[in-house]
Design a protein that fits this description.
- It is a single chain.
- It is built from eleven helices and 20 strands.
- It is α/β, with parallel strands linked by helices.
- Helix 6 links the parallel strand 9 and strand 10.
- Helix 1 packs parallel to helix 2 and helix 9 packs parallel to helix 11.
- The two termini are 28 Å apart.
- It binds 1-deoxynojirimycin (NOJ).
- The site of 1-deoxynojirimycin (NOJ) has 9 residues, from loops.
- 1-deoxynojirimycin binds next to loops.
Length: 519
């Protein structure tokens, strides 16, 4: 693992909505450049930027039409390079979003592949050889080309699937992983990575990383493909980091990814914590973290205790934390996020508790995700300091509420969520045991790792490394809790909502409490 990843705390920037400097209503690279100091001051030392390449933006940039050119609406390649340069000056790292699975229908490769005459790009995408035959288990584009056949799509129907081959080809049109078409696709994707790494970026968040090779149910082929990519990176860019949107760390880490994201869909139970009817971190105290912990422990074991599972506060695909949690509840949620292994990811605006904007029409393929992508709220000037454009020209309308949180107000208030997050990041970095590769073992999680305790509150775990052991106690519930356990902490290093008492083999935990105790 590149060293810098061990104490990385990422900040996710959705470029469209971060900071607009040319008054066109859309965020841009110069805006990001201007705000790197802010991110650094918060304590984040790494940035993940959502796709910022040429695109018709039917899926907010996850529909790339040129992998080698920055989207003109954000600026030039040179402007993007300036972000890498300044980030490095500030001791920060920047990862870009690599979308290797599909392109836009407007990509020149796709245009060429639609032609009836065979050419260099005929096998760049997955095509059946009969327009009446759709690829099994996938959506497809049909009736749009002079070429005979249907083209597989990966996500929206304007995102044709690039061809990395089939694990076990069965139909005549399904190509083997080592056939020339799939080999050319992966070679080109390495060129894309090389291009941006040479320009100064520090790695990639990889979109839908587990889905490249088709008919590969247990992921064996895709794992091998990424192992090959990792070998290329180790040879040419040993400091480059790759983080996968895969959600199965036993596979992705084996494939050479340094870290894997915990996903809000699939089997992770991540939503049980923050985004369901009774989230664990609500003070109603009706949530249950046990299924989440059980799944987490299972993955942790499978990765040989390496963990390296990144837990995001949110992202551009899910509801804002503030849709289900109050600012006080979010403090405890952050005490959790910032004390877990792997690298924490903070979605822009979550550090001030930005809200999900209800009732918005879909923008650029956002649909129900649109409300979580609204402009960053910097201050109390026009458009919350996001843009000097007329408000009706903003990419997505702002949160209109009179009491919407802003960076400026929270920075001047020591009791704000912003400052809580900042303190927690500082603490994480001051303690080796809290970093990415520190071990974790759960002490209480409501049935997942303990037998006696009936309740899922509090969540208690130990983070440890050779030098130190830290007991983390999180009781989001409005009720105090007692659990048995022999602990004699030397020092309380963090506490909100009072402190836990340790005596006579019992731990008494106050309501709405988060505490880190040095053992
Ligand atoms: C996952 C991305 O996070 C999401 O925003 C996108 O729509 C799909 N992948 C398709 O690329």
């Amino acid at each position: 693992m590149p060293n810098w990843l061990n104490d990385a705390v990422f900040y996710e920037i959705y470029p469209q909505s971060f900071k607009d400097t040319n008054a066109d209503g859309i965020g841009d690279f110069k805006g990001i450049l201007e705000k790197l100091d802010y991110i650094k001051e918060l304590g984040c030392n790494a940035v993940w930027m959502n796709p910022c390449f040429a695109s018709p933006f039917l899926d907010a940039g996850y529909d790339v039409s040129d992998y080698y050119t920055a989207a003109p609406r954000y600026g030039t390649n040179e402007d993007l390079k300036q972000i890498f340069v300044k980030a490095h000056e500030l001791g920060m790292h920047v990862i870009l979003d690599l979308v290797p699975g599909h392109t836009s229908v407007e990509h020149p490769w796709f245009r060429e592949s639609m032609k009836a005459a065979k050419n260099e790009f005929t096998d760049r995408y997955i095509w059946t050889n009969d327009v009446w035959e759709a690829p099994e288990g996938m959506g497809s584009l049909r009736g749009i080309s002079e070429r005979e056949g249907a083209c597989a799509v990966n996500f929206f129907s304007h995102q044709p699937a690039l061809n990395y081959g089939y694990y076990r080809p069965q139909k005549p049109w399904q190509q083997a992983v080592d056939a020339p078409g799939p080999q050319a696709t992966i070679a080109e994707m390495k060129n894309v990575m090389r291009f941006w790494l040479q320009m100064g970026c520090d790695g990639f968040r990889v979109d839908m990383a587990g889905s490249l090779i088709k008919g590969d149910e247990d992921g064996k082929g895709t794992i091998r493909l990424w192992q090959d990519v990792r070998a290329f990176l180790d040879r040419e860019f040993p400091e480059a980091a790759i983080v996968s949107e895969w959600g199965e760390p036993d596979k992705s880490l084996l494939g050479g990814f340094h870290m894997d994201f915990l996903l809000h869909f699939g089997p992770s139970h991540y939503n049980d914590l923050f985004r369901c009817e009774e989230p664990y971190f609500s003070s109603r105290g009706k949530g249950d973290a046990s299924a989440f912990v059980a799944k987490y422990c299972e993955n942790y074991e499978k990765t040989g205790g390496k963990g390296l599972i990144c837990i995001p506060s949110g992202n551009h695909d899910m509801d804002r934390l503030a849709r289900t949690l109050t600012p006080d509840e979010m403090r405890i949620a952050f005490a959790f996020l910032l004390s877990m292994p792997g690298a924490p990811f903070i979605y822009y605006g979550d550090e001030i508790g930005m809200r999900y904007v209800e009732g918005l029409p879909s923008v650029e393929g956002g649909y129900n995700r649109t409300g979580a992508r609204s402009p960053m709220q910097w201050d109390d000037t026009a458009n919350a300091g996001f843009s000097a454009a007329p408000s009706e020209k903003l990419y997505i309308p702002l949160d209109e509420s009179a009491d919407r949180p802003t960076v400026k107000a929270q920075m001047t208030d020591d009791g704000s969520l912003y400052h809580e997050v900042r303190r927690l990041i500082t603490l994480r970095r001051a303690h080796q045991a809290l970093l990415a590769d520190g071990e974790i073992s759960f002490v209480n999680a409501g049935g997942a790792c303990t037998q006696e305790n009936e309740t899922s509150y509090p969540l208690v775990y130990l983070r440890s490394c050779e030098q130190e052991k830290i007991l983390v106690i999180l009781n989001p519930s409005g009720k105090g809790q007692t659990l048995s356990g022999e602990f004699q902490p030397k020092k309380t290093i963090y506490a909100i909502g009072g402190e836990a008492r340790f005596s006579g083999g019992a731990v008494t935990v106050p309501p709405r409490h988060a505490g880190y105790y040095l053992l």
